[in-house]
Amino acid sequence: MRRALALAAEGVGLVSPNPLVGCVIVSPEGDVVGEGSYIYDNVTHAEGVALAMAGKRSVGATAYVSLEPHDHHSRTRPCTEALIEAGIARVVCPIEDPNPLVSGRGFERLRRAGVNVTTGILADEAARQNEKFICWHRKQRPFVHLKMAVSLDGRISTGRGISAKLTSDAALRRVHDLRHEHDAILIGANTAIVDDPSLTDRSGKPRRRPLVRVVLDNRTQTPLDAMIVTSARDVPTFLFSDDGEISVSEALVDAGVRFFPTDARDLSAVLADLRENDIQSVLVEGGAAVAGSFIDARLVDKVTFFIAPVIIGGGDAPAAVAGRGAASLADAFHLKDVDIARHGDCFEITGYPRV
Q1: What share of the chain is helix, strand, coil (3-state, %, to 5)?
Q2: Does 47 qualify as catalytic in the annotation?
């Protein structure tokens, strides 16, 4: 099963809005006779790839699949049919597919055909691997991952609001790996003005669709000469605003920006629009007001802070998260399942909200 999860991970950046899936076929003698990963553009599902490799050695074999095989016709025939026809005797799978077209039906179909089905093996790891896909179906919105880079005293810049690189090159490489995992990257207008970022995936890893850049800008103040505007014809760029001069919004559209007349303060509406455009996951990169808004709305599914060994100080230096904030520690945004990693001199702290 760990090998099946590793094979599934080969699809990062290459499967959205579908799930990551890996499959390993083990013969009755205990030999690995087939392996497969799902890649969207290759169409064939992981089970089909593994079965093709295994050939006749699939008869009586065990299939280890990282996500429940589907039992409906989509771009491919049902994987349950392929497993049954190949003579697979047992399927080991950690979790159900959250897609209501699949959920539980794949296991039921296999059992009706006499296939032994074992579930729950490495379930937590499998659910974590497909957390974006699971959120997409269960919450009916994109998965939201808040990422911030801060100083040791929790500031994101000096009091002058001047853009500055806080983290190490090693941490920056990790940030691009995070961007690679997501469908979209989101900022507020102030970040676009102060930092003038390009917001691209520079991980060097292949991806099926370009990283979509999203700007929340209710006053439509993003400069027309900002990098995300001047490159909008080459990189998909969405801007949300229900206010501002019509001439400015028309100029943005003429530059290639896709304009959404949606209140940028209504984050649920923003996420609904993104879901309609097949955005399965969003990496929120700032600034403080945007981070605070998502925290206040309890619309954050995962948090990653990169902490640099530098102290900025000063009463005017902005903190990482603004918004209303917590009235008491009991109301604060508490995290669980916290992991810590080191990248050069910087530390990455990642956790999930306590529900």
Answers
A1: 30, 20, 45
A2: yes
